[in-house]
Amino acid sequence: MNSWVLAMIITIALIVIVAKRLIGEPLNGRDLWVPPVVLTAIGLYTLLNTDGLHAFDYAWLAGGSTLGLALGYLRGSFVAVYEKRGFLWQRYRGRTFAAIAGTLVVMLGYSLLSGKLGMQSAARPIQLSIGISFIGEALAVTRQGIALRVPFAPERQ
Known about the structure:
By secondary structure, this protein is mainly α. Helix content is 70%, strand content 8%. The protein has helices at 3-23, 29-48, 55-77, 94-116, 126-148; strands spanning 25-26, 80-84, 87-91. Strands 1-3-2 form a three-stranded antiparallel sheet. A hairpin with a 2-residue loop joins strand 2 and strand 3 (87-91). The chain starts with a helix and ends in a 9-residue tail after the last helix.
């Protein structure tokens, strides 16, 4: 698949996810976990099919993944998780968007620094970075939901 087409599909999917979460939406496990796992899998597939990566690239990738996971968890801690109609709901708040902006700045800086120090761009698949960040968010949101002792919303029909 053309990389521009894949980038557009991912961008549209992210816009839809953020728009739904801004309004507030029922919180169910599938919607919370499947998109980040799929993005991470696409990123890993891309990475595994890249030749010529060195230990240096993998070290920077591990550092970036850890940073992305931590920033995603921080962002997820700012998501409002609440009960509505007997189930969990989630909604992004102003602090969530501040955390999103901060995450983008930090990850852009990390990416620029890693590039300046010699990490290959092929070792930094954007799908992997986004997926890992959303896994961190999903961990924080799941923790909040479990703490409320309210059931997750059922799957949509």
